[in-house]
Write a structure and sequence with these properties.
The chain folds into two domains: 6-186 and 227-253, Rossmann fold; 190-225, no CATH class. It is 47% helix and 13% strand. The protein contains eight helices and seven strands; from the N terminus they run βαβαβαβαβαβαααβ. The radius of gyration is 18 Å and the shape is globular.
């Protein structure tokens, strides 16, 4: 379906980003991975994905708090893959604390990685996409881009901003062949939320599964975690011809969270 397309996926050495990278690669899309982690493990992931899918898979370790490194990531994608047709902004960090106890440096890092980084990647990708008359920009926002939760000021502010950025980019590129959409997952079992599950597990003698059930019961009516594979399939839909007129949209994949 995406044979010959080229994709950059930020935050793709683990979790949702890695799952989306795999989904794109299996459909014939060359991929530029990005993220943090053990270099040997990342190289093993890169090789495995390349061998499994038969497409070119590269890696760039840009720090998403540094605009100059983000620009270098996007240049490397053009040089090593031949261009950028698909951009998935998935990099993100989380911290929970009341506003009065929220560390300013942590606030700055969350805004930089969860919001500003997407501005920088989009800014670099749009010109190339316009030249080709085709492009897909997919921002992995969150249900917290649509609603708020206590103790998550940085994350909620950044994700609401990302939803707004999505709409502006969609309007600026309407009719050009470029779409820009946001996927807004509910609770998804990734490293990002494991600390929240562990905190709730303390009330159950350290039982992580019970902690996970508590987390789901509070917000997500389905009482089931969203899966990484489901988010990969949603990404493929937004990259398909069927979604050519889907732009500026927020796709809530949240087990009914925002229906309440």
């Amino acid at each position: 379906m995406l044979q010959g397309k080229r994709a950059v996926i930020t935050g793709s050495t683990s979790g949702i980003g890695l799952g989306i990278a795999a989904a794109l690669a299996v459909q014939g899309c060359s991929v530029m991975l990005n993220g943090l982690g053990d270099p040997d493990r990342i190289e093993q992931q890169r090789q495995h994905l390349e061998q499994r899918s038969g497409v070119t898979v590269r890696y760039h370790g840009a720090d998403m708090t540094r605009p100059e490194e983000i620009r270098d990531l996007m240049r490397a994608a053009v040089e090593q893959l031949g261009g950028v047709d698909i951009l998935v902004n998935s990099a993100g960090i989380q911290h929970t604390a009341p506003v009065e106890a929220f560390p300013p440096a942590t606030w700055d890092a969350i805004i930089a990685i969860n919001l500003s980084a997407s501005f920088h990647t989009i800014r670099a990708a749009v010109a190339s996409m316009r030249g080709n008359g085709w492009g897909r920009i997919i921002n992995i926002a969150s249900v917290h881009g649509l609603v708020g939760s206590a103790n998550k000021a940085g994350y909620v502010a950044a994700k609401h901003g990302l939803v707004g950025l999505t709409k502006v980019v969609a309007l600026e590129n309407a009719g050009s062949g470029i779409t820009c959409n946001a996927i807004c997952p509910g609770w998804t079992r990734t490293e990002l939320i494991e600390p929240q599950i562990a905190a709730r597990a303390q009330a159950h003698g350290g039982d992580l599964e019970a902690g996970g059930r508590d987390l789901l019961a509070e917000k997500q009516p389905s009482k089931q975690f969203v899966t990484i594979d489901q988010l990969g399939q949603c990404t493929l839909f937004l990259c398909s011809d069927a979604a050519a007129q889907v732009t500026g949209a927020t796709l809530a994949v949240d087990g009914g969270w925002t229906a309440q």
